[in-house]
Structure formats: C-alpha cells, structure tokens
Amino acid sequence: MSETRNAPIQAIDGRQRSGTVEPGGRSGAPLGWVWLAAWPVTAVFVLSNAATPLYVLWQRDIGFSKGTLTVVFAFYILGLIGSLLASGVLSDRIGRKPVLLPALLLALAACLIFATATTVAALIVARLFTGIAVGAVVSAGMAAVTDVAGPERKRIAALLASCAMVFGAGLGPLLAGVISETLPAPTVTAFVVEAVLLLTAVLAVLRMPLRRPAAPAKGAWVRVPGVPRGNGPQLALGIAVFAPGITATSFVLSLGPSLLSGLLGTTSRIVAGVMAFVMFLAATGVQFAVQRLDRRTILTAGAVSTTLSMTTLIVAVHTSSVPLLIVSALLAGAGQGMGQLGGLSLLNSSVPPQRLAEANAALNVGGYVPAGLLPVSAGYLSDAVGLTSGATVFGAVLMGLAVIGGLVVLTSRRQATEPA
C-alpha cells in the first residue's frame, strides 16, 4: 500500500523537478499549462518592441539620426543572433529553465537601463540585453511550450508558441504608445509596467513542469545552430519565407515611426504603437485562420503577403498615404506570421526533442540576419538620399527576396505538403 501511495507523489515531484513526458510517450501537462508556458515568450517579446514608439522622444531629448536609430535596432539583432549561437544548444543540454531564468533577469536589467537612459550608448546596451533575452526565449522558450504540450499536441504547441511571439511583439509598442501619451514620465512608466509582466513570467517558469534532457546532443556548446541530418530541407523552406516576412516587420518597427512623423506628418506615438500592434495582431490572427491548411499553402501565402506588403509600402511613401502604410504593415505581419508558423511546424514535426531548441534557433538566425542588415542599410540610405528613395530601394530588394522564397516553396515536394 505504501508503494502505491508514494508512486504518484514521486511522479509529480519528478515532473516539477525535471519534466512532463518522455519523448514519444503519453500526453504532456494539462492544456492550461501549455498556454501558461507560452506566457514568458509573450512577456519578453513585449519588451522586444516596447521601445518602438518611444524612439521619437529619445531622438528629441538625446539627438540622433535615422541611421543611428537603425544601429540601435541592429544591436538588438546582434544580441539576439549571438544568443542564438549558444542558447539553443544550452537548452537542449541542460534544460529549458536554466536558460529561461537568466534571460528573464537580463530582460529586467534592460527595463532598468531603458527607464534611465540619457545617452545613445545606454539605448544600445538596453537593446543588446533585450536581444540576448529574446534569443534565449525563441529557442528555449518556444521549445518549452512543445515540451509541456507533449508529443500528441505538437500542432497546438507550434501554433501557441508562434502566436505568443507575435502577439507580444505587437502588444509592446501598443502599451508603450498609450502610456507615453497618457501618463507622466513615459520612458520610465512604460518599462515599469513591462518589468511587472516579466516578474510574472519568472514565476511561470519557476512553476513550469519541465524535464531535463535525458539524452542531450553532443558537439560544441557555442556554434552556428543547425538541424539533424535530413532536416535541412525543412529548415530551408521555413527560412525562405520567414526571413523576408520578419525583415518587413523589422523595417516597420525601426523606421515606421520616422515614416509617420517625418514623411507622412503624423506625430502621435499612439498611432505608431497601434500600427505595430495591428501588424502583429494580423500575424497572430492569420495563424489561427490558416492552421489547418497544408504547409506549402501557408508558406506560399506568406511569401505572397510579404511581396504585396512591399508593393504597398512603395506606393505609400510615394503618395504620403497613412492608410496604405498601415495596409503594408498588416500584410507584413501576415507574411511573418505564416512564414513563422510554417517553419516552426516543419521543425516540430520532424526534429527530435533533444535538438528542437537548436532547430528553433537556426530558423531564427536565418530570419534575423537579413532583418538586422537590411533595415540598417535602409536607414543610412534614407539619411543620404531621403526617406522616399530609401524605402523604395528597401521595398524592391525585399520584394525580390519574397518572390524567390515563394518559388522555393512551390518547387518543393513532400516537405511542405502536410497540414501545419
């Protein structure tokens, strides 16, 4: 009798200390825990874009150009990519919590630096810390959602992890924009609110039913993340569509406020925040709308959406149209959302759990490298030749990349034919 009574206690204790389910075993934690596991992803991504509507305030108080603004944004990408070189491998080897908790603490430090920033250097450090935290979350955090969900709910895990990312990315600028227009000390208050959200995420991670990896992969601890042999085609298909999509949304985040305030004559930070929010709301909603379609259709639609976004962007800057700029942002969000869902779904369905965080990191490296380089180039080009010409060149280049991504998907075979 005593052994019978003790067994469940040991199982529960084991789940809290080291996990949910064995790979290929029975279902994971209750569905509520799957949703809660996605919350740290949302909370960190709120921080990732919370600074977007506040840059105009820092530009006014500190004084720096559009080129410098995109450099500040690029340090976020630099921190993110640097983090991805290690966080995915670390997470697969030592577990999700030991990677997520330090990332959340670094995000809290970024909040403190943002709230007290008086120089460009401080903004760069805060963005760098934010990028490192985001890199850890997109690898360890998104893999944690899959781990908690268990092998029988990989589809819902991919959907929730992807939607948590884009919803947080959109919620951040909306909150910051509203706070900056309605409350005192906007650059302080916005990051105090975000710090509270991050503290709740810390509590969620501490209680999350995760297991330590039973058979971690071998190799270098810091390396360019990749996927197991045979999964390269799935990774390539995801990057082909996800990279142009996230580059489009990165442009809106980095230079969207400048377009609104400079070229289009709109100075409201709420408008800048709402534009970013609806962009990522579109990225969230479209994933629920297309989740039952096959992956090739999702990825092709993502490439088409990004192409249309860049076409609309070029028309918007030449006609000084705020509505068209918002349409461009919505299409960019939809393109990123579908590329992200298709890519994550391909990896979730084919990569073993002990390499999943690294595979997620590889997908994001492939997406964030052009998302860092192209908007920075567009920012400096805009300083040299004007915002209209800079945005036009950027739109044309990214449109070409999106078309190529769509053609890559259309020429693929079985890798993208199953439902997401």
TrEMBL record:
<dbReference type="InterPro" id="IPR020846">
    <property type="entry name" value="MFS_dom"/>
</dbReference>
<feature type="transmembrane region" description="Helical">
    <location>
        <begin position="297"/>
        <end position="318"/>
    </location>
</feature>
<feature type="transmembrane region" description="Helical">
    <location>
        <begin position="235"/>
        <end position="255"/>
    </location>
</feature>
<feature type="region of interest" description="Disordered">
    <location>
        <begin position="1"/>
        <end position="24"/>
    </location>
</feature>
<feature type="transmembrane region" description="Helical">
    <location>
        <begin position="359"/>
        <end position="381"/>
    </location>
</feature>
<feature type="transmembrane region" description="Helical">
    <location>
        <begin position="324"/>
        <end position="347"/>
    </location>
</feature>
<keyword id="KW-0472">Membrane</keyword>
<protein>
    <submittedName>
        <fullName>MFS transporter</fullName>
    </submittedName>
</protein>
<dbReference type="InterPro" id="IPR005829">
    <property type="entry name" value="Sugar_transporter_CS"/>
</dbReference>
<feature type="transmembrane region" description="Helical">
    <location>
        <begin position="70"/>
        <end position="91"/>
    </location>
</feature>
<dbReference type="InterPro" id="IPR011701">
    <property type="entry name" value="MFS"/>
</dbReference>
<dbReference type="Pfam" id="PF07690">
    <property type="entry name" value="MFS_1"/>
</dbReference>
<feature type="transmembrane region" description="Helical">
    <location>
        <begin position="156"/>
        <end position="179"/>
    </location>
</feature>
<keyword id="KW-0812">Transmembrane</keyword>
<feature type="domain" description="Major facilitator superfamily (MFS) profile">
    <location>
        <begin position="1"/>
        <end position="414"/>
    </location>
</feature>
<keyword id="KW-0813">Transport</keyword>
<keyword id="KW-1003">Cell membrane</keyword>
<dbReference type="InterPro" id="IPR036259">
    <property type="entry name" value="MFS_trans_sf"/>
</dbReference>
<keyword id="KW-1133">Transmembrane helix</keyword>
<dbReference type="InterPro" id="IPR050171">
    <property type="entry name" value="MFS_Transporters"/>
</dbReference>
<feature type="transmembrane region" description="Helical">
    <location>
        <begin position="270"/>
        <end position="290"/>
    </location>
</feature>
<feature type="transmembrane region" description="Helical">
    <location>
        <begin position="185"/>
        <end position="206"/>
    </location>
</feature>
<feature type="transmembrane region" description="Helical">
    <location>
        <begin position="33"/>
        <end position="58"/>
    </location>
</feature>
<feature type="transmembrane region" description="Helical">
    <location>
        <begin position="387"/>
        <end position="410"/>
    </location>
</feature>
<feature type="transmembrane region" description="Helical">
    <location>
        <begin position="132"/>
        <end position="149"/>
    </location>
</feature>
<feature type="transmembrane region" description="Helical">
    <location>
        <begin position="103"/>
        <end position="126"/>
    </location>
</feature>
